[in-house]
Amino acid sequence: MEISSKENTQFFSNNTVLPVDRSSFKSESSASKEKQSCCGGIKIFLGALSFVYFAKALSGSYLKSTITQIERRFDIPSSLVGVIDGSFEIGNLLIIILVSYFGAKLHRPRIIGVGCLIMSAGTFLIAMPQFFMGRYRYERLPSTINSTVSISPCLQDKSQTPLSALEKSQAKINAGCEKEAGSSMWIYVLLGNLLRGIGETPIQPLGITYIDDYAIEENAALYIGCVQTVAIIGPIFGFLLGSLCAKLYVDIGFVDLDSVTITHKDVQWVGAWWLGYLIAGVISVLAGIPFWFLPKHLPKPESRKGSSTSSEQSKFITEDNKDRHKSYQQQVKIAEMAKDFLPSLKNLFGNPVYILYLCASIIQFNSLIGMVTYKPKYIEQQYGQTSSKTNFVIGLINIPAVAFGIFSGGLIMKKFRISVLGAAKLSLGSSFFGYLLLLSLFAMGCENSDVAGLTVSYHGTKQMTDYEQALFSECNSGCACSKNDWDPICGENGVTYISACLAGCQASSGSGKNTVFFNCSCVETLESPSRSSSAVVGPCQKGNECPKMFLYFLVISVITSYTLSVGGTPGYILLLRCIKPHLKSFALGIYTLAIRVLAGIPAPVYFGVAIDTTCLKWGSKRCGGRGACRFYNSSALRYVYLGLTLVLGTVSIFFSVAVLWVLRKRSSPQDETLSANGERGACGTKSRKDNFVNSDRLIQTTYWPEKETRL
Predict the structure, then answer these.
(1) Do 627 and 76 form a contact (C-beta atoms < 8 A)?
(2) Which parts of this chain are annotated as the region Disordered (predicted)?
């Protein structure tokens, strides 16, 4: 009986224990499922956001790759191209504050999806002028056009040209003037880019903060680094697409390509710039689809459930107490949010670290945006490369270095658990060494090409100041030439002449691309008058040292791009961790607004104006007036382009030093003690009481242990 009673006791005790074990098992199982759901949800959003970053970066970089193509197609100067490029930022400016402030309280994924649709519509609009304007017309003298009529380039007597041919030519010009006088098709490109800017607005502030709200904090830097790395892959494909389209003639599919008398190496060549925009628009549509199926909120990670402010939406969300298992239930009150707008703005501008970092970023982005916008033009004009090769080199060599640099910055932040102060140091160091390397590019330029009447005289001496009068010389005084023409030929003496007429050529053979000119009086005056003077279509190649200099330029450019990019992710983390959590979207919105207004809009314009001052030969529009630049002063272009970039970069470094100084000055010895107790400080506020709202914690202790900086 005793044994039986003991067995019964043991039996009942086991039965009483089993329900506890099951409940424990269920709790562990539910926690595991919740963790998997959280991680899975944030990773799906991360993948969707990365694809959107890829799409917007592809279309944006493709625009950069077509800058010179658009300039030639619409016959406009670099300054006006800068306005077109800056219209993207104007689109951001129109709605950035509303989206970043009110969008954070609404359905963020769906707002991003709407933005993708608007962005794709703008991209399609950019390509529309190709289907409404006439065919592209390039400057070619009658002797180089496929024709059975043989016309001497040097029109000593206008009667050499058949009257019917002159009348037809003039009639075509007049008809073209009537059509062009009332149309400025580049406006559609500007409006399309403006629409692209509007659509892109919600992606950065809402996407980045969504990740920062629902990701485990120690993974936030790595996730942001991943998104930005994928965003850099977009420009790789964008520039490669630009390289491919630049080799295709602009009117491919509309004209007989055999009738085209210029090649992609010609300065007047315009590629199929519109084709890439159609492809980019389709990609933008596809990128926006996943966001219509993503949830408004994700479950919080276990490590962040104790923090009431780990999500910025917690300030504006009322939870349903009757059903705690459901996700957040938000009741948006527009009036209350609007009332909180000015205090929030005052809070941000009262943060010295935020303001100084904002100033540093504005000036640095002026430098970088101007440099990136006109880098293809700089390579083409400085090193004599084609648009296709330039875009290929930038996309395949330069952009991957930027991607690797951004990813390295995020990886360094995670691996070494760098503090806010360390992030500021890393950002400053990358900028300093990057611009120091950029300084060496001054020594890696090419000399001006020898162009008779522009860089050298017809007698081989250096050019005088008034180049237009120097276009005419005794050797071509008997020819009826126009100084506005640009149909360059290369003499056998290695000198480029603006046209066969100005070279004094009396005869020609062949047609189109294979035309050869003979008896050129200006060519024989330079060297060996007894030799038969001849010339071929197209400008002469740059000097023998130029290919070597181009190789050196590529090496330094890649290293510089990597060095500058390493500080990208630390800068983002510094920005996010030095403000109160519920203001993250608003702070990023103000930051983006300032970059758009004070860097994205003006930088391409004044860089373009400065580059225009280095032009030696302007093209002429069919109806009169100045067109696009045909030839630049290489030395002046190098000093203007690199000089502006370095001056702005140097000023931004001084502001970065100020950020580091404020961080050091406001840090206290008690920070490490506070970090051991799990307390957090906010950067740049006046007192501890102002820094915390219901125990606000900016960074999880497991992420930055023993290196806290309370300001």
Answers:
(1) yes
(2) 300-324
d(CA 353, CA 576): 11
Q: Which contacts qualify for 70-73: CB closer than 8 Å, 24 or more apart?
A: 70/186, 70/189, 70/273, 71/628, 72/268, 72/269, 72/270, 72/628, 73/136, 73/250, 73/270, 73/273
Coil, strand, or helix at residue 505? strand
pLDDT per residue over 100-111, tens digit each? Answer: 677 767 778 888
> Which tokens is 584 given?
């993250």
Token duo for residue 389: 């090769």
532 burial type by CB count under 10 A (0-12 exposed, 13-18 middle, 19+ buried): exposed
Q: What local confidence, expressed as pLDDT, does residue 333 receive?
A: 56
Instruction: State the Cα–Cα distance between residues 291 and 294, nearest whole angstrom.
Output: 5
Q: Where are the beta strands (DSSP E) in 492-553?
A: 496-497, 505-509, 516-520, 534-537
> Within the chain, which residues score under 70 in pLDDT?
1-40, 100, 104, 139-153, 155-183, 217-218, 299-338, 460-469, 512, 524-532, 622-624, 668-711
Residue with tokens 């162009």: 451
- Rounded to the nearest 5 percent, the helix, strand and coil shares of the chain are 65, 5, 30
- Residues shown for the chain: 711
HEC assignment per residue over 211-270: HHHHCCHHHHHHHHHHHHHHHHHHHHHHHHHHHHHHHCECCECCECHHHCCCCCCCCCCC
Are 95 and 73 in contact by the 8 Å Cβ rule? The answer is: no
489 closest CA partner among 271, 264, 262 = 262
Residue 643's SS3 state is: helix
In Å, how far are 75, 76, 625, 628, 630 from 618, measured between CA atoms? Answer: 10, 10, 10, 6, 5
The span from the first CA to the last CA of the chain, in angstroms, equals 75
CA gap 596, 216 in Å, rounded: 30
Q: Which domains does the chain have, with CATH numbers?
A: 39-137+184-299 (1.20.1250.20), 354-447+544-664 (1.20.1250.20), 448-541 (no CATH)
Q: 23: exposed, middle or buried (C-beta count within 10 Å: 0-12, 13-18, 19+)?
A: exposed
CA angle 665, 666, 671 (to 5 degrees): 120
**What is the per-residue burial (b if ≥16 Cβ within 10 Å, else e) of 99-117?**
bbbbbbbbbbbbbbbebbe
Q: In this structure, are residues 571 and 406 in contact, taking their beta carbons and an 8 Å threshold? A: no
Strand pairing report for 534-537 and 615-620: unpaired
**Which residues are 249's β-sheet partners?**
271
Q: CA 332, 336, 339 angle in degrees (round to 5)?
A: 140
Helix, strand, or coil (residue 498): coil
- Measured CA to CA, the distance from residue 38 to residue 304 in angstroms comes to 12
Token pair 């991003």: residue: 112
325 with 75: CB under 8 angstroms?
A: no
Q: Which residue has the tokens 């100067």?
A: 77
Q: pLDDT at position 549, please?
A: 92
- Tracing tokens 């009537």 back to the chain, one arrives at 178
**What order of strands is seen across the sheet that includes strand 489-491?**
496-497, 489-491, 534-537, 516-520, 505-509
